[in-house]
Design goal:
This protein has helices at 2-12, 14-45, 47-51, 75-81, 188-195, 215-225, 235-248, 251-281, 283-291, 296-333, 341-362, 364-368, 371-374; strands at residues 56-60, 72-73, 86-100, 109-116, 139-143, 158-161, 164-172, 183-187, 201-202, 204-209, 230-234. The two termini are 26 Å apart. Strands 3-4-8-5-7-6 form a six-stranded mixed barrel. A two-stranded antiparallel ribbon has the order 2-9. By secondary structure, it is an alpha+beta fold.
Amino acid sequence: MRIFLAWHNTLQNKKRSGAAVAGITFAVLLVFMQLGFLQTAKTNSTIVYNYFQFDLIIVSTRFEALEAADYFDSSRLLQARVVPGVRDVSTLDVSRGRWRDPENNNLGSSCMMLGFDLNPAFVPAEHRALLPALTPRDTVMLDRFSHPDYGSQRIGREATLENRPVTLAALYEMGVGFQAEGTIITSLDTYLTIRRQQARHVIFGLVQITPDSNPAEVKQRLMAALPDDVIVFTKDELVFRERNYYVNVKPIGIMFRAGAFVAFCVGGVILYQVLASEISNRLRELATLKAVGFTDFYVYGVGIQQALLFAAMSYGPAFVFSLITFRLVYWASHIPMFMTWSLALTVLGLSVAMTTVSSVLALQKVKRADPADLF
């Protein structure tokens, strides 16, 4: 019968309960959005790494993150090729530039430039047939998800990249992150010409190992064989490092976490106000329950159950609205923002925590209520 008492208390004043559920739903939706953006930031920070197929990666010891990478000497890749367990090595350079569509009068769009040695083993199988189109000088492959300001995605059209004319030779799909409005892949020859960069300067050395090798063991061999001006990571280590940098160091990650905390506090305050008002209106009834022999535990249970009912009625609509919002964000920006089990369970846990804290604070009035003073 305990849950029925809380249920009837909740539904007795439907307008007030509806307003309370609407307020809590909005707060839970804010938590969904902020944590969803934080999850998206983690995913987008490693979108380049996840596109290329490699087991280990060689970077400079001064490497911090994708957007703060430094060069090392290309001779390290030649040394890596002879290490036991290494099957193949590839070069990848990354930098940012400006893309300009001749038909667009704006000042240009930010562009992430990926200079690649066109080794087909290091790209997804469905994109390997596109690489020969990048062999001619000044040809590029454009991400289909790039911003509309990039102009027409017609093969053969011309644009400018860092004020140098280039020809669109192919289209691929990787996804656009927060770093730039679009992404292109080009050959190392074209990349070095556009960037006016020396060929011996390499940012990433991608390494594939033989099928019978262990990544950790090959990593140790590479570290022992290569000079101390480079360091080797497994792909998982690099992804973890990049996400940690983007979420815990960059302002965008701190901002989303702060937003989630504020939304949690707003929901807690709304729920506390609702429960405090409900308890104040029913203080005589609750005191009567104590007077006729019901324990404090039972009376507290009614209040906590009512709080859980408000949370449950709010979580469902907030979950549905967040699914719709995530889809709209993906449709508008092509930034991969999806609902995951971990996100859904995290917000559910935060909702329960918010409910527990608010109900405990609101029920302090019942604890102090003396039936003799109320009647």
